[in-house]
Fold this sequence. Notes:
alpha/beta, five-stranded mixed sheet, 13 helices, 11 strands
Amino acid sequence: MRLASIDIGSNAVRLLLVNVFEDGGQSIFKKDSLVRVPVRLGQDTFTNGEISLTRGENLIKTIQAFKNLMEVNDVQGYKACATAAIREARNGKVLIQELYEQTGIEVEIASGQREAKIIYSNHVEEQINGKQSYLYIDVGGGSTEVSLFHKKELVATQSFPIGTVKMLNKRVRDEDWDAMKKMLKKLEEDYPGITGIGTGGNINKLFKLYGNQKEHFVTRKALKEGYEVLSDYSYTDRIVKLGLKPDRADVIIPATEIFLAIMKWTDMEKIIVPKIGLSDGLIHELYQEMYTRKITEVFEE
Length: 301
């Protein structure tokens, strides 16, 4: 079957199409395509407190285009989720209602904790060393989610209102940094030797630029050196010389700062980059719900 997820983020809106196969009792997820549109809702929310008419219209046009793509690709189910830019905007709920009325697409406005739960739906704990501790890190435009696995068990998860677009607009409070630092240093004390697992477009790009391509990780040392290079380049040079997209060339600096802060406070030496995130988590959640419903229907017959 073919499933879809829509991630309405603070920086971009994404449509992910995935084919799911059953093979010997195992579910295989194969990404078909990913469409990304830099609507940048957070630029409005984190500066003016609400989303402008123009960006709201752009969002609705984008979702309508995504709906058309889902129809022509014979998608059998979808999940759509909006994060920090929508939930923190004064007119966020009104915009999502208008979006539904014009497109028929239902969108969940997720809390920070809900974001962490969706990301956890990727079941990354099945792919890691059962004897070690891993910190799952997702850095977005409006928030950062961290979840700690110890011996494959989720033992702590927290969302912080610290994001790349917020940092660009100087909307991150000192007390939010202090809260993140306090939590992470406590985790480092309780679970020494933490390895990171990073998700999101920024860490994927940082990995591509400075990571170990064979073993799919980027070290703290490499990130520090990369940060110095990125900081020396102008915004235009990051686009021309490094090949970054315009809406990535600015947020990649604060994203690196967030990752480096997390690595410092947890004494982390490297971050594994498996190229999964919120969109993938939505797909896994949707499939699990459809599979459970299918099993229930069988028993009811």
